[in-house]
Amino acid sequence: MESICGHMSLDADAREPEMSACLADDVTYCDPNGAIAGRAGLAAYMAGFKESVPAGRFIILGVLHHNERSLARWELRHEDETVLQTGTSFAAMSDGGSALSPASSILWRGGTMGNEATRSLALEFASQIAPPGAIDIRRFFGGSALVRNGAQFGFVMKGTLYLRVDAAMRAEFEADGSEPFSYRAAGREVTVRRYYAVPAHVIDDPSLLRRCSERAFDATTRPARKHSKATLAVSLPG
Q1: pTM of whole model > 0.70?
Q2: What positions does the domain TfoX N-terminal occupy (predicted)?
Q3: By CB atoms within 10 Å of each CB, which of 14, 167, 198, 216 scores lowest?
Q4: What is the CA radius of gyration of the chain?
């Protein structure tokens, strides 16, 4: 939510005018810890957060705005520039441009976001990728799958968008520092190299995100290459 408002300060004196300028009176804020109604309640929540991270400051990595909704990526950094927390915030806006229902998906020491927050984030990505109704959002283990014409070409898990890749996309994403989806099962790390996290610069560029999503869909629906069967010639005597 802090990043949705631009760069909301953790300092109380600076925070009050910022909240009045960018948040509606009846704002409702949600994160994995619960929901808070009203600016006063949110101010108290942030005051408590400030006490827990006295030397912290928010850095905005990128903001998207579309159809009265905003999506932002941010980091919480210590004064020595150590990254303490990363997350994604999204908000529905009022007619006057104030945030009505900001929400944050927070990743901290392996934490996860709730199912509803994950679905909302997946819907926001879907609105950037294709016209309304073109992409279905379905449950996918602990995340939300992006499905088009019955084919799953991506998913959101723990606040991160993953897309299906072919060899060319995999090489491009790896060059940008992206990593494949992985999870732990039976005490070991399992890596799924068909899906890679979408690089930050792609998330920040709607047209590039759409192109990458089209390529992901093509990679999903492209027929698997058939391997020719070897023919063994046998000569029989006589």
Answers
A1: no
A2: 128-219
A3: 167
A4: 22
In this structure, is the dihedral angle defined by the CA atoms of residues 204, 206, 208 and 210, taken in order, positive or negative?
positive
Question: Can you tell me whether residue 168 is helix, strand or coil?
Answer: helix
Question: In 3D, which of 102, 81, 88 has the Cα closest to residue 24?
Answer: 102
206-to-113, 142, 210 alpha-carbon distances in Å = 24, 26, 6
Q: What is the CATH number of domain 1-111?
A: 3.10.450.50
As given in the structure block, the two tokens for residue 235 are 């000569």
Task: Report which of residues 203 and 22 the model is more confident about.
Answer: 203
Tokens for 90, please give them.
Answer: 């999204």
d(CA 83, CA 78): 6
Break the chain into its structural domains and give their ranges. 1-111, 112-224
Beta strand 57-66 pairing with 69-77: antiparallel
For 126-147, what is each residue's pLDDT tens digit? 998 999 889 999 988 878 999 9
User: Dihedrals φ, ψ of 14, to 5°?
Assistant: -80, -25
Residue 129, C-beta contacts closer than 8 angstroms, at least 6 positions apart: 135, 146, 209, 210, 213
Three-state secondary-structure class, residue 69: strand
